[in-house]
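Researcher: Predict the fold of Pirin.
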Amino acid sequence: MPAITVDNVLVLPRLPRLDESTTFRPVRRLTTAPSGYEGEGFPVRRAFAGVPLSELDPFIHLDQMGEVDYAPGEPKGTPWHPHRGFETVTYIIDGVFDHQDSHGGGGTITDGDTQWMTAGSGLLHIEAPPEHLVVSGGLFHGTQLWVNLPRVAKMIPPKYQDIRGREAALLTTPDGGALIRVIAGEIAGHRGPGATHTPIAVTHVTVQPGAQVDLPWRPDFNALVYVLAGRGTVGADARPVHTGQLAVHGPGDALRFAADARQDSHTPALELYIMGGEPIREPVAHYGPFVMNSRDELIQAVEDFQAGRLGVIPAQRLPHTGGQGPRP
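Model: Structure tokens for Pirin follow.
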């Protein structure tokens, strides 16, 4: 997994050693993501399937996109489609993805980059592999996280953040057994580049075989640990986990996880995508690409989309490889 890395983790700042009074969070729920297809047919794992929204709050949805090795002509994306009322955080671990929206945002992200789109009051957007990747094929792997917006921010103007992988705050453990990439929020005093409307933390952690990580975590945040690849354990009671599983944690001051001493040849380390945030605790009305507080607001969002009030597809637009036009 390319993402962002360093030649020598020992030059990085290190997590503090936690004292004996630390309360490590227990694993409350362990689920396995079902597989499906998104957009024009690219494979995904639905990481939050089966988990109540009350345990995910302030998050709504997480897809692991791939890992898939496309043959020439196979790479796929999404057609133009609307969003309102939340944020999408697209993180590319391996491969290349283009983004464009009707509010003027857009760009290309690759190994370790993040596209952070605040849909707010609404827009149209498209995500697609660049033409050269469609022609050549190649490896593609990433995640897309949906972050809810509180009622007071549901209708703010749309915004786009183009976050390069090298901008992430990098740190390691006291023994250098893991690489921690802070994409948003703060971990042990190290702040990531993502600007958020809801207090959250998002990090991608690579744990070397046999290594253990004790990660300080804000007590007022929930804690979700998703396994992108590899095998290991989570929680103070060392619950076994593997690729495609999500561990929902209970209360406490810190997370504990470790990589199995032996990994398979395709996955040399344990790769974790870790999320947490301050729960919004507001009603959630969710329909397709709209996340609002009530059914009436959802109906209004659909009507606004159908009337063209969420924007129009730009004249200079990205191509896509198939599928239908935008639909809720």
